[in-house]
Amino acid sequence: MSTHSNHPFHLVDYSPWPLTGAIGAMTTVSGMVKWFHQYDISLFVLGNIITILTVYQWWRDVSREGTYQGLHTYAVTIGLRWGMILFILSEVLFFVSFFWAFFHSSLSPAIELGASWPPMGIISFNPFQIPLLNTAILLASGVTVTWAHHSLMENNHSQTTQGLFFTVLLGIYFTILQAYEYIEAPFTIADSIYGSTFFMATGFHGIHVLIGTTFLLVCLLRHLNNHFSKNHHFGFEAAAWYWHFVDVVWLFLYITIYWWGG
Amino acid sequence: MRHLQLMKYVNPRFAINTVITQRLMSKSDGKSSGTGSKDAKCKGTKDAKSSNAAKKSTEAKAKASDAAKKATPPKAAKETKVTPPKDETAIAGGSKCPPKVQPVAETSKNKKKLQSCDELLLGKSTRKQKKPLTAIQGGDLGCPGRTGKKPQIVAQHSKLWQKISLFGVLPMIAILTLLVFSTRSEEERLEFKNYEHMYRRTKRYWFKDGNRTAFHNSHFNALPPAGYEDEVDESGIGQDPETDKDKKARMKEFDKVVKNWRKHSSKRDAQLKKEAAAAEKEARKQEAQ
């Protein structure tokens, strides 16, 4: 098709992905019902598989539209930016609910818990051991992703590769240390409201670190395939925004749950 | 003036004349003073003599007007009395003042025009030229996130961040890793107490044996209702407490075991004694030999 048009917008082609995405979401939530009532996770897993296949191919098509077909004009890019901003806003509100639950319990602990926080029977983590190291790791990954971004804007391919590589490496290192902390934890998710809120907040943050690391890894692969130019690299910028968001959430987690609440 | 006042009582027509004359006198006085001040303002550089001459001329004009008033009849006097003062003042003021005032206005207008021109010129240069929306991203066009100017990309930015990353941040990570893992020590676990808010089990888990969490640690995580795994019999964890019947049965079995143990122990003791005696006999024989 010709790239000439008398309007700046992207009239999307026919695509099966919205339909298969809806099927995947429905299968996932039906699978949750089956899981909770019948102790069977097969339908839930099937729903997740359908969703993963859908998002992979949907984003593959978006990359093709933007990189090879030239359909991402300035107006389209503005729309993508607002989409990403609103998504990150919804993630912020998602984590607000976990912090709300934590503060609800920690600011006025019940008499059954011993009227103290952490509750009786709980030993909390030392915040100046592995949690402090994890904080340094995420802050460092923020610096390396900024290095990659500046290199990309200066048309420096090798420096961008190095910056992205180090960022992904630090994300994986964070995940390894967090898993080690989980294994060595002196409390479980079933140990009072402390264990529940701790593992919910840090668990979802850990999942978001995995998602962000995957996002950056995909950007690294696209960069190695020369998808980005110094002027047109919104996929990378979205990954960087998301990574900075994950970093900031960890700072709040560290200060409130590990340090103050420990 | 006195004649006119006396004429009031004789003939009412002259009363009207007196009123008109008084008004004209007051007006003429004001105008004469006004013209004098205007002249002074306009002719700031002139001498005092010229100002005196102007005053004399105004006085002469006033006298002439008075003479005209006396001579004319009443109707004709009305018409002629009104027109002369206006003409005099208009001629005197108009011819002198405009040359000084107009240039100021013209200069101010010119300045305004010049300012507006400057603003227009500056506005053109400072105004942000928006990119056409149909422009396809890429090539030599500006960054999508910035309108107008292309960002001045300086190579120092990436070099700066490279130095911060490689020589500042990554070594810090390595040092912190060494510090953390070298000073790490194993913590002691708390004594087990079956609090109501701890070790919650409302349903069995859907993974493993249904009683252990996903990240279960056998040393640090206790299991309800018994406690830590290495302190209790694992096979009894999670089961219901035994009933009295079960306890009696268990005690019966225990008693049987105890009886058997005692029998075997007594037999074993006797056997040991025999063996000891036999050993002594052999020892004595060897000594005799």
From TrEMBL, chain B:
Gene3D superfamilies: Cytochrome c oxidase, subunit VIa (4.10.95.10). This is Cytochrome c oxidase subunit 6A-like 2, isoform B. One of its GO terms (biological process) is mitochondrial electron transport, cytochrome c to oxygen. Coiled coil: none annotated. Residues 26-109, 225-289 are annotated as: Disordered. Belongs to the cytochrome c oxidase subunit 6A family. Pfam families: COX6A.
